[in-house]
Write the structure tokens for this entry.
Amino acid sequence: MTSDTPPLVRRHRVLVRLGALAQLAAIAPLGIAFVTIIATLFSTGIGTLLVLGFGALLLIASLYIAWAASWIEHERVEGLYGYGLPSLRPRTSGQPGFGGFLRTLWVQFTDAAMWRGIGSAAIATVLGWVVVGAVWSTISSIGLALSPLYDRSAGRLPFTGIAVTDGWVVVGGIGGALLSLGILFGIALLDGIITRAVLVPSKEAMLAEQARTAGMQRAGAVRASEVERTRIERDLHDGVQPRLVSVGMTLGMAQQKIDTDPAAARALIDEAHTSTKAAITELRQLARGIHASVLDDRGLDAALSALAARSHVPVALDVRVDGRCSSTSEAAVYFVIAESLTNAAKHARATDVRVVVRSRDGANGRTLWARVEDNGIGGATVLPGGGLDGIMNRIVAAGGTARLDSPVGGPTALEVSAPCAS
């Protein structure tokens, strides 16, 4: 550090070093506790793996407790040093069913960021115990240096345990204190160096992660568009198309009767007019399902209010959003809620739906979060090409996450989160 470094910066660095030492001292027993719990669950899980699947549950628990330890380490390092580390999130395969769950476990187990956090936490635990020993040595050395004030003429040097007497007591105490403080200073520097080397990914790894994320979003967008195209084709084929065919046939019959039976022809024309208006209404609803213009004009709150007003199931709507998010995220959340309301009415046999939408500030910026919960029969599953599959893919395409909780018997709860920034 040069002499022209601002004093505030120097004081800030001192606080960071002191904070690192305090955190390492706290991590020392916490790390031992995590290691004990994880080792116990893992060993017990291996031993009871064939006992009614109980061992598998313990192994899964050990995996996610290890993830929790890694998450704590990531948050500690980012809060202390501000490297710009992305928040550690549970990995998911994005695939439905039991096979998708097993795939999720494998994806989580092979998550390099989680293992880097575990390695950094293990090193921090060792350093933490060294910090605890060095602090105790500093206190002992200071006590040894001051021992002549209490009529003590002998003592033992810290670390070595060598006995000193007479005038060497003060010298040994001061030397031991300086050595202990030097060790503490070195550990404070070492923690910053090690955490940067272990946790901060290389440029190649960051580019690979960005490419992987972009690939997932692109695949989600493709699947979401395929599901949406299938839905539009089905709605056109099952709804509007038969109605327009009926209008054409009715007008043909009216044309045949217009000379011989004008009254009947007029009735047929009225019927065709009514069917045409119904077809126009269906087309408008279909267009609204493709793109909600009110979402662009008046925002998510107004769009969801209109959606709740048209719902066949009573909806308790609670929207608290500060400002606008990106059009992609707003559209994704809007259609997630729209599809959830449709599912609650058609499949869940729900009589009440609660929708909560919030904008939240996090380490990675502002996010748009929504939760839809109904009191239906539950048992909802994500099937390829189904409505829930479209929901998941649309959220993934927007760079967000989704979580479905739908036990048999209900209730069904769907939580989604999408970044506000485009």
